[in-house]
Amino acid sequence: MLRKSLQIILSIVLAIGLVACGGRYSVPDNVLKNAIAISVNQTEQQISQELKLSAAPKVSIDRVKITEQSPLKIQGSDGFHVKGVYDFTLKLPKRQESQSDNPFDLYLQRKTEGKTQTWQLAQRTEDDWNLQPIGARKG
User: What is the pLDDT of residue 64?
Assistant: First the structure.
């Protein structure tokens, strides 16, 4: 009985430890949502320019589901290649449009200075990376 109880306690401690460490090696939800919003907004602005609209519609990212995530180095700093799907709402002047399960494929770079992490959306150019700030997060 004591041995069984000890195994259960050790299993719980191990599970908590794995969950606690998981955040260190993954992309925070708010960073991922902001990166998707930046990417979607860039596309919307391009479409708005081509259609000669006065302003790009506002986009709200509602749900994000990661299907693949792998670490990599981007210009010598830690980064992630993240794939998945998201839902969004497009806010137009007179109505809203929503879409579900839109695929995303992003590269994100993380830099840590002290207890602050900064994140950048990394977009591959012909021979380098174009980095766009996403925001800072206290670690």
Answer: 93
Provide the CB-side half-sphere exposure for 23 (13 A, CA).
12
The tokens 């981007």 sit on which residue?
A: 74
Cα–Cα distance measured from residue 35 to residue 81, given in angstroms and rounded to the nearest whole number: 12
CA distance 119 to 133: 6
Instruction: Please list the alpha-helical segments (H only) found in 1-139.
Output: 2-22, 29-50
Q: Centre a 10 Å sphere on the Cβ of residue 35 and count the other Cβ atoms it contains.
A: 25
pLDDT tens profile 73-100: 999 999 999 999 999 888 877 888 899 9
The neighbouring-strand residues paired with 85 are 65, 103
Q: Which residues pair with 129 in a beta bridge?
A: 124
- Closest to 26 (Cα-Cα) out of 117, 87, 131: 117
